[in-house]
Amino acid sequence: MPAGGARSSPKQPPLRARGEKVARRARVRRSAAPVLAGLVLLAGVLAAAWRYEVSSTKIPAGAFPVKLVVPPGASAEAIARQLHALRLVRHPLVFRAVARWRGVSAQLKAGEYALSGPLSLQGILDALARGDVVRRDLTIPEGRNIDEIADLVVAEGLDRAAFLEVARDPSPVRDLDPAATSLEGYLFPDTYDVPQSPEAPRVLVRRMLERFREVIDPQLGRMKERGLGVRQVVTLASIVELETARAGERPRIAGVFWNRLDKRMPLQTDPSVIYALKQAGRWDGNIRKRDLEIDSPYNTYRRRGLPPGPLGSPGKEAILAVLEPASSKDLYFVSRNDGSHEFSETLAAHNRAVNRFQRRRASS
């Protein structure tokens, strides 16, 4: 320690050295400033490009709809590639990024889309997330059975096997018909708005069943009073539906069948034989005398009572005709070959009607 005990101050760098360090720092700041400015500018450009890509119109108003078919299980990446091929996105990565940012990457629905403008990338993404697939009207005529309905479904681009799988599961109607082995008779005939998507068969069947319940539920009390089950009513209604296309005749035809059932007479209705032939793979569009001998529980020429189940899907008028049959003693009817029928109370009168309308036709 120096004399007098005084502490020495830390050694300071020369003034010149300190000046040079300050100068170097200033030069670094000056050289970094353009880089930072460039990065800020680039970020702004990228943000503007992002906003433009997301919000700009990809499909203008008035343009023809762009068809996009998204297969089941398609990823956001696969959809992005499709959109890129259709020139609806400039960069597939942007679509994937936006989908992930909005949390809908795993919610994009499969199906057929007809994208129409004005539509931006964001709008396209919204349509896919909502599942705004193409919808077509499918009309199911009265009297069609499950296989015939499946043919109509296929014609609208739906999967036949998927439809039949759902239509042959009786569990949705077990509360109404514990003996049901399928949904035969319960797929209500009407016009339905069908989505073009993998879920379409299930959606269609659900709507047809809902429509059936809308029609049958108000009648359940009346059925209970008369000791009738839903299966009985629908089965007989399906026969009435197939026997005549004239609404005014349905109550009278239903009355004939009720009269025959009361007398324990066989119904002897051709539609039941045709159904049996279809089940056996023998239906060629014509019914012959030998066909009336087919060994089937649906052959009402050989077996008394109602067939085991419905032959197809009856409409509301046929169901009501069974519940409100015309009061008569008629036991027979025969076609007049003009869509109407001749009714008879006795076999003799019926044979005369057959000679008049059917045999004359065969000889002409």
Write the layout of secondary structure elements.
Elements: H1 15-55, E1 57-59, E2 66-70, H2 76-85, H3 92-101, E3 111-115, E4 119-120, H4 121-130, E5 135-139, H5 146-155, H6 160-167, E6 191-195, H7 200-216, H8 220-225, H9 230-243, H10 250-262, H11 270-279, H12 316-323, E7 332-335, E8 341-344, H13 347-363
Antiparallel strand pairs: 1-4, 2-3, 5-6, 7-8
Helix pairs in contact: 2-3, 5-6, 6-7, 9-10, 9-12, 10-12
Commentary on this structure:
48% of the residues lie in helices and 9% in strands. It has 364 residues and is mainly α. It has three domains: 57-130, Dna Ligase, domain 1, CATH 3.30.1490; 135-217, no CATH class; 228-363, no CATH class. The strands form four sheets. It has a two-stranded antiparallel sheet with strand order 1-4. The protein has a two-stranded antiparallel sheet with strand order 2-3. A two-stranded antiparallel ribbon has the order 5-6. Helix 10 crosses helix 12.
Short recap of the structure:
Helices cover 48% and strands 9% of the residues. The chain has 364 residues and is mainly alpha-helical.
